[in-house]
Design goal:
heterodimer, A: 244 residues, alpha/beta, 6-stranded mixed beta sheet, 4-stranded antiparallel beta sheet, 8 helices, B: 317 residues, mainly alpha, 13 helices, 2 strands, globular
Chain lengths: 244, 317
């Protein structure tokens, strides 16, 4: 499989705190790559850099053969990177439909929103993923944690792009919704999409991922095929911070 | 069904409450004075508050983006001075008005640009610009009002078109434009989303700085139109003309239910609040009550509105 994302020597500090310290990470098309590690090891920071939300202090990002020192959100989107953020990046004052289409609103004319289509498409999308939200015009502030996560997922999954990142996609969801969403993520792989999955649930990791990259203290400590390991061994590696 | 209706009405509780208070004031004042509920007086209230409404509408747009603009009153003064000053040196009235309006847009846009790029609090940035624009007004005029403006200019504050005066027509047009603009258009929705969660919007690849600049530029335009109307009404452009107007506008916007945290714009609420404050001013004047009480009532109403808004926001989030 072709490598579609290659991140070399990525460094990022916030004041005196070093979040990433020369991180290397690569992703192949048609594969699910899990990114795991203890809290604060830099997983989310790395994905924010890939999504253009944060700019690295050093390092190189190669996407589709093109090299970048850093990306803007707009650039990342142009390159086909979609990120479902752990903090969901929702606007609590907007309704479900508004959040699902935030930044990609269907228009009737140049500036005129097609609100009816937004509502209908949002309903269809939620139905497709078996997400139960009674009214798509309900402000997101009124929704439960699981429902908010569903809205963020529906937004990410509505358009299939070559590189898709899911940062803790089902942490607040029920069993049935989780199974449905994991099925959707698995299908992305079949469509040749490079999927990056961040999860603390190692059973989900082994159920879905082809490869796992383990992080500790802002660095890569191991990368291996899931077929060659087990959740227990991976757990040991995470706890030990790579020193096994 | 009933619960659904209640949920849909919930965001409009402040406006419904404000409308009820407004009606209560109207009914009470109509009992206390025979002059209050007359066509002449209603027209007087509408005309006297049309420019206040204009500024409040612009302020609603800015505050819906979770910002504030303390320099709006200074823009009113400076744009009026630009227009009157250009007319004074022989410029064509129409051209002078256009330049003044552009000046207002530029001043507002500059506020928005500095806020967006510096990421400083809008309160601090616009406090600085309030002083800068006021200072410029004083420097340009040397503190002396520019008077004796031509009839073609005074038309914008005093004359009538089919029994309606231009300020009222302009305020109505701006109001009718902003309602669909904020609720149905992409720029309007992005201004609101800048208030709801600017970071969420940014992460979707939207240029949030542009929409912050746009919101402040729109207020700059309404402030410049207010400057035109006030200068035309007074037949005089002076540096102190807009003092306090920004605070009045902010009061009306908060009373109207637009939250300080942004994300929502209650233009109808701002309209009712401007009318309520204008009615209190008018009613108390008719009843020969000291203007000090007007200030007192405005303060009480603002305090009650803010306390109610806080309670509502706690239940909302």
């Amino acid at each position: 499989m072709a490598v579609v994302v290659d991140m070399h020597g990525i460094k990022k500090s916030f004041g005196h705190v070093t979040a990433l310290d020369g991180m290397d990470f690569s992703v192949r098309a048609g594969e699910i790559t899990a990114l795991v590690g203890d809290n604060g090891c830099g997983k989310t920071t790395l994905m924010k850099i890939l999504g253009g939300v944060l700019q690295p202090d050093a390092g190189e990002i190669v996407i589709g053969g093109k090299s970048f020192a850093s990306l803007s959100v707009h650039q990342a989107k142009e390159l086909g990177v979609t990120v479902m953020f752990q903090d969901l990046a929702l606007d609590p004052t907007r309704d479900t439909a508004g959040n699902v289409f935030l930044g990609r609103e269907p228009l009737k004319a140049r500036f005129w929103l097609d609100k009816r289509r937004m509502r209908e498409d949002a309903r269809a999308l939620l139905e497709r993923f078996s997400i139960k939200i009674d009214d798509v015009e309900t402000p997101v502030a009124y929704l439960s944690g699981g429902q908010r996560q569903s809205v963020a997922l529906a937004r990410a999954l509505q358009h299939k792009t070559p590189i898709m990142v899911f940062d803790e996609p089902t942490s607040a969801m029920g069993v049935a919704e989780t199974a449905k969403i994991l099925g959707e993520i698995r299908r992305l792989k079949d469509d040749g999409i490079a999927v990056i999955l961040i999860s603390h649930n190692l059973f989900h990791v082994f159920d879905l991922a082809d490869r796992v990259t383990v992080m500790a203290l802002g660095r890569q400590v191991a990368t291996f095929d899931t077929k060659e390991s087990s959740p227990e061994a991976l757990h040991q590696l995470i706890v030990a911070g790579g020193v096994v | 069904m009933r619960g659904n209706l209640r949920r849909r009405l919930r965001p409009f509780y402040p406006q419904l409450l404000l409308a009820a208070v407004f009606l209560l004031f109207v009914i009470t004042l109509s009992f206390l004075s025979d002059h209050f509920l007359t066509w002449k007086n209603i027209k007087n209230i509408a005309e006297a508050n049309s420019f206040r409404l204009l500024l409040a509408l612009g302020m609603t747009v800015v505050m819906s983006s979770a910002a504030i603009d303390l320099s709006a009153g200074s823009i009113v003064s400076l744009s009026g001075i630009i227009m009157a000053g250009l007319i004074g040196v022989g410029w064509d009235v129409s051209l002078a008005i256009v330049i003044g309006l552009i000046g207002g847009i530029v001043m507002g846009a500059l506020n928005g640009y500095v806020i967006a790029k510096s990421r400083l609090s809008p309160f601090i940035v616009t406090l600085a610009f309030m002083s800068i624009y006021r200072g410029l007004s004083l420097i340009v005029t040397e503190g002396i009002p520019i008077t004796k403006l031509p009839a073609a200019f005074r038309f914008w504050g005093r004359s009538y078109i089919d029994k309606l005066n231009p300020p009222l027509i302009i305020a109505a047009v701006v109001f009718l434009f902003l309602i669909p603009f904020m609720s149905r258009t992409k720029p309007g929705q992005y201004i609101l989303a800048s208030g709801g969660s600017e970071e969420a919007l940014r992460r979707q690849g939207v240029n949030t700085s542009f929409y912050r600049v746009l919101a402040h530029a729109m207020l700059g335009l309404t402030a410049a139109i207010t400057g035109l109307i006030v200068t035309a009404r007074l037949n005089s452009a002076e540096a102190n003309a807009g003092i306090g107007m920004d605070i009045d506008a902010i009061t009306a916007v908060i009373m109207g239910g637009t939250p300080l945290s942004g994300g929502r714009a209650h233009l109808v609420g701002s309209l009712i609040a401007v009318l309520l404050l204008g009615t209190i001013r008018n009613g108390l004047t008719i009843l020969s009550v000291s203007s000090y009480y007007q200030q007192f009532f405005s303060g009480v109403l603002l305090l009650v509105s803010v306390l109610l808004a806080k309670r509502r926001e706690q239940t909302f989030i």
